């Protein structure tokens, strides 16, 4: 089997199921790595996710499970156009589910917090979509199957002075400064 697929994650059950079925039939099947979608995202944003940290998950997973969100790090929600779909059959946006997504994000972020609707360019000569909108406007945004939601940090990291003391980090070290 040959396909252009994400190797894992982002609720991509079909590739894993296909590999499992092929193996059960006696065929050799495996996934091979390729250029990752998040590598394109960070390159297009011109940001280093390690500067502030980053959490990535599929948008439906974000809705289905309880979360602890660190607002001092990036939050990336993949496939927001089908957020809340438990059937793996929907191909378009459900505005009610998007409203629930906005409501849940409201536990950590202000309605005015600017987020980025991201879509990688299909060809090197095209530009990526990097549309900034307030969280409150997500319900009205134009979304495609490939739209990813990038939520930049809303707060600063707070140094853990107790741990820094235990690690022997000097008082003048940049780690002791607010970020």
Automatic annotation (TrEMBL):
GO MF term (any one): methyltransferase activity
Source species, domain of life: Bacteria
SUPFAM superfamilies: Tetrapyrrole methylase
Protein name per Swiss-Prot or TrEMBL: Uncharacterized protein
Source species: Lacimicrobium alkaliphilum
């Amino acid at each position: 089997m040959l396909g252009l697929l994400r190797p894992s994650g982002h609720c991509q059950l079909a590739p894993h199921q296909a590999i499992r079925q092929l193996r059960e039939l006696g065929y050799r099947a495996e996934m091979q790595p390729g250029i990752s979608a998040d590598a394109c995202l960070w390159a297009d944003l011109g940001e280093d996710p390690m500067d502030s940290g980053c959490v990535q998950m599929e948008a439906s997973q974000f809705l289905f499970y309880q979360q602890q969100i660190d607002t001092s790090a990036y939050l990336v929600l993949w496939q927001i156009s089908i957020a809340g779909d438990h059937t793996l059959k929907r191909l378009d946006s459900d505005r009610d589910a998007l409203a629930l997504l906005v409501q849940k994000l409201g536990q950590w972020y202000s309605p005015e917090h600017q987020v980025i609707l991201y879509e990688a360019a299909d060809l090197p000569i095209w530009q990526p979509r990097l549309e900034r909108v307030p969280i409150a406007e997500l319900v009205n945004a134009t979304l495609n199957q490939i739209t990813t939601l990038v939520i930049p940090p809303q707060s600063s990291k707070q140094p853990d002075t107790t741990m820094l003391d235990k690690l022997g980090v000097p008082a003048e070290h940049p780690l002791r400064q607010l970020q």
